[in-house]
């Protein structure tokens, strides 16, 4: 069963290969410039090069990824660095120099928020510290990106405003709900949030950051231009298509499991909220299935995706998928098989894609409480011996959870 869980995850990744997904939706015209950013940028760009031949491009990838012989800026993720700033400035310069007749193909995937960083009114150091604090606060990706967009000269549609060219974007979604304005903080898409709403996020999570607050307060008073809004005429120059989503990933695993003769149900592709609460929900659902056969009869596989949040209060290491499994282990009364992983191959700061729960973990008798208190899900699964390591997968379609109720 452990091998089947792993194979279902890997098969889902193979079925949603970014090169294949991009190749299906490339426009018939030859672009004057291709911009590729995010964790899936390299295979997306390769698909374009295979189709059009040698074309002008700019590629930005997370450090640690293999650019496969392509010219690339390798920047830091999830907290930006100086290379993130260089990449964004280069892209803005390229866009500014284009004529109204030029056509840009933008290949955008998750991770772009950190990889293109052009701070507005704040220093890079302030942006780095604020990003790190937001990611540890328990804020949703929608809240985090609302702040990012209003402290940026490239996010929130400002990349589109920086050019007169026609832009066609192909997007791989790593956000619950697949909102294009949230994927990579929507560099070419309209942003419904405001400076005031971004400021409210800082208030909600008790984040001081006076430099950022001053910018957001001035923006709320109208002293800075807002991000691109849905009624802006610049949007006549934008077309886009979602080429891959979390639901594609989950359905690929579902098809694989059904082909092996198992029943498999996709619960949702957009679970959010606090990770431990999400684990409790899954544990209670498993309990109802085991005890009463509702809402599903056993045996079956449960699949779910989306992106939950971890409020970090301890000094341990891990990620939201490891934390989910640790909390699930704490809630369950009886063993089961489960896998949870980030489709990009790196869950938080753990260095692993995720982990597995198996009956052997229960046999070890590990106490989850001290690990939960320290947010040390990595430490727990190192002791359990069930970490799942894939390395960077070259894609980013959000989280993957697979549980077998036998």
In short:
This protein is of the alpha/beta class. The protein is 40% helix and 17% strand.
Kindly describe this structure:
With 406 residues, the chain is an alpha/beta fold. The protein has two domains: 31-244, Rossmann fold, CATH 3.40.50.10180; 246-405, 3-Layer(aba) Sandwich (glycerate kinase, domain 1). The protein is 40% helix and 17% strand. The protein has helices at residues 2-15, 18-23, 41-52, 82-96, 112-115, 124-137, 141-150, 158-161, 195-204, 210-220, 246-259, 275-292, 320-331, 359-364, 369-373, 377-384; strands at 33-37, 57-62, 73-75, 103-108, 166-172, 238-244, 264-271, 300-306, 337-342, 354-357, 387-388, 399-405. The strands form two sheets. Strands 3-2-1-4-5-6 form a six-stranded parallel β-sheet, with helices on both faces. Strands 7-8-12-9-10-11 form a six-stranded mixed β-sheet, with helices on both faces. The longest helix has 18 residues, at 275-292. The protein is globular and about 65 Å long.
CATH class category label of the largest domain: Alpha Beta
Instruction: Return Rg in Å.
Output: 21 Å
Helix content: 40-55%
Strand order of the largest sheet: 3-2-1-4-5-6
What shape does the CA trace take? Answer: globular
CATH homologous group name of the largest domain: Glycerate kinase, MOFRL-like N-terminal domain
**Mean pLDDT figure:** 97
* CATH architecture designation of the largest domain: 3-Layer(aba) Sandwich
Fill in the CATH topology of the largest domain: Rossmann fold
Count the domains: 2
H-E string: HHEHEEHEHHHHEHHEHEHEHEEHHHEE
**Number of separate helices:** 16
Distance between the termini: 11 Å
How much strand content do the residues show?
A: 15-25%
Query: How many strand units?
Result: 12
Find the structural class using helix and strand composition.
alpha/beta
């Amino acid at each position: 069963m452990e091998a089947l869980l792993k194979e279902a995850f890997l098969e889902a990744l193979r079925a949603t290969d970014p090169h294949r997904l991009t190749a299906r939706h490339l426009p018939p015209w030859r672009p004057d410039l291709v911009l590729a950013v995010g964790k899936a940028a390299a295979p997306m760009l390769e698909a374009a090069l295979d189709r059009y031949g040698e074309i002008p491009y700019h590629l930005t990838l997370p450090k640690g990824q293999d650019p496969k012989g392509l010219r690339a800026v390798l920047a830091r993720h999830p907290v930006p660095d100086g290379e993130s700033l260089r990449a964004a400035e280069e892209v803005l310069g390229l866009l500014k120099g284009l004529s109204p007749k030029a056509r840009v193909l933008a290949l955008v995937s998750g991770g772009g928020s950190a990889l293109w960083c052009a701070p507005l009114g704040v220093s890079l150091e302030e942006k780095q510290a604020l990003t790190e604090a937001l990611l540890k606060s328990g804020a949703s990706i929608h809240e985090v990106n609302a702040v990012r967009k209003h402290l940026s000269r490239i996010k929130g549609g400002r990349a589109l405003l920086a050019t007169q060219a026609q832009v066609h974007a192909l997007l791989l979604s790593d956000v619950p709900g697949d909102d294009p304005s949230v994927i990579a903080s929507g560099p070419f898409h309209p942003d419904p949030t405001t400076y005031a709403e971004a400021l409210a996020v800082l208030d909600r999570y008790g984040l001081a950051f006076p430099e950022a607050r001053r910018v957001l307060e001035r923006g709320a008073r109208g002293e800075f231009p807002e991000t691109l809004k849905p009624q802006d005429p610049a949007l006549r120059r934008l077309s886009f298509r979602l080429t891959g989503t979390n639901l594609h990933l989950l359905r690929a695993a579902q098809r694989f499991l059904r082909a092996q003769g198992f029943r498999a149900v996709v619960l949702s592709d957009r679970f959010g909220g606090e990770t431990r609460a999400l684990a409790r929900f899954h544990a209670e659902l498993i309990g109802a299935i085991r005890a009463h056969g509702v809402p599903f009869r056993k045996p079956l596989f449960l699949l779910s995706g989306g992106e939950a949040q971890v409020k970090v209060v301890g000094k341990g290491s891990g990620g939201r998928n490891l934390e989910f499994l640790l909390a699930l282990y704490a809630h369950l009364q009886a063993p089961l098989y489960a896998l949870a992983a980030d489709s990009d191959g790196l869950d938080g700061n753990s260095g692993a894609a995720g982990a597995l729960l198996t009956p052997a973990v229960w046999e070890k008798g590990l106490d989850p409480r001290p690990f939960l208190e320290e947010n040390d899900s990595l430490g727990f699964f190192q002791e359990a011996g069930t970490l799942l390591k894939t390395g960077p997968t070259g894609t980013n379609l959000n989280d993957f959870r697979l549980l077998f109720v036998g």
